[in-house]
Amino acid sequence: MTRDHRKLRATVVALGLAVASAMQAVAVEWSAVSPAELEGEVTVWSWNIAAASLKKLVPPFNEIYPNVTVDVNMTGTNLQSRFLLSLSAGVGAPDISQLQLAEAQRYVRTGRMTDLTPVAQRYEKDFPASFWADCVYEGKVYAIPWDMGPCGVFYKRGLFARYGIDPNAIETWADYIEVGKQIRERSGGKTHMLFLGSGDMASLFEILLRQAGGQVFDDEGRIAIDSPQTRQVLDVLRAMIASGITADAMGWSHEFFASFQTDSVATYVSAVWFGGSIRDYAGNTHGDWGVFRLPAFESGGLRTSNLGGSVLVIPDQCARKEAAWAYVEFALCTHQAQLEQYRSFDLFPAYLPTHSDPFFDEPEPFYGGQCVRRLFSQDIERIPVLHRTRDWMEALRYIQQALSKWVANGMGNSNPFLDDLAQRLSRRLARPIAPEAP
Q: Which domain holds residue 44?
């Protein structure tokens, strides 16, 4: 653990000690002020293209709220760590902050976020239940979903055609593995089906676990990783590695990005936002890419999952809550703003009313004219809730370490492995183990 990590962990502990009193936050008196009457300056912390999209929304927002000034601070460097430190200090936080969806619960449970329930509750049905759940704690709404990461499989059209592979025939993970073996054989061992390094399995594990309806924690925060659903996930991972279709290399490495323009790897199991990385690093491969739906565990099963996404929150320090909420509401809960962010910045909207727009059915030249947006939109309402706690990221890092050892030790029987993993997580996170489901 580095010095910065130790400092941040100490801050988290200190902040946790203050939660008990902070959770009794004074209720906000939301005033019914007309858009023309609302005024004030609002500061937003965000990063990269997300920040750029928020900046682009300011002019149309000001057409409705002419007296609210929005300053988007595009600073991704340690943003979430700095935000946590400002919450602990009680000063220095912005009026609005972006957070990764996976870490939202870590922050909403601090008691330092504004309770948005009175103004936000009416939007609950406009977002997938699995996303809304990450924004709620003890029945109160503390964050609003922004973008999401529904999953699929990106593949190289030319390579599939060369080896006579029909992507539409891949329905289950067993089909996917069989196709991987065919490509490996027909390419003379030159082409693997996917990257899956033993030290880089956490992302695919999370995709599969959510797809299977499994959990790391149950809805009471107890350790729930030892389950039939997790055993299904391990069975798929074991079959992939044992079949020889995986390239044992790290994702997001130089080799990973270089593979976009070679025949070394045929497919990439990832989320909708992954397409942006392909365009950035292999724009000259325009038209040679396609996407097929995430294979199911069983025929007829769920063919999607989620990886990534973000939310916006209003810290309790904000002195202009009505103005801050007006901007959050405009950016995340209106068809106009959400569609503009998807059209211009490829931020896949969690706001469900946008999904009926004809834009989702337009063919995309980069994907050979395929209607990829509609593909990713399918069944997102069915994505299972993944119970997260403030320990989510630490648990995921520990699971990655355990998976690496599992592979190194030959990927044996899942039962003792999961029992041991549950026991170790329980001790590490000081959480009880959930009773086995009947």
A: 39-149+308-380
d(CA 4, CA 21): 27
Residues 269, 402, single domain; the answer is: yes
pLDDT tens digits for range 258-300: 999 999 999 999 999 999 999 999 999 999 999 999 999 999 9
Q: Is residue 15 part of a domain?
A: no
How many domains is the chain partitioned into structurally? 2
The answer to whether 176 touches 193, Cβ cutoff 8 Å, is: yes
Q: In what helix (H) or strand (E) does residue 195 lie, and over which residues does it extend?
A: strand 194-195
Number of other CB atoms surrounding residue 205 within 10 Å: 20
Q: Is position 245 within any domain?
A: yes
Q: Which of 380, 398, 420 is the last residue of a domain?
A: 380
Task: Write phi, then psi, for 297 (nearest 5 degrees).
Answer: -70, -35
Q: Which two tokens stand for residue 418?
A: 């999961």
In a domain, 34, yes or no: no
Q: Which amino acid is present at 306?
A: N
Angle, CA 140 vertex, CA 118 and CA 436 arms, to 5°: 155
Helix (H, G, I), strand (E, B) or coil at 56: helix
Closest residue by Cα to residue 109 from 86, 85, 79, 87 = 87
Does residue 234 belong to any structural domain of this protein? yes
pTM of the full predicted structure?
A: 0.92
CB distance 307 to 206 below 8 Å: yes
State whether 218 and 339 are in the same domain.
no
SS3 364: strand
Q: What are phi and psi of 110, to 5 degrees?
A: -75, -20
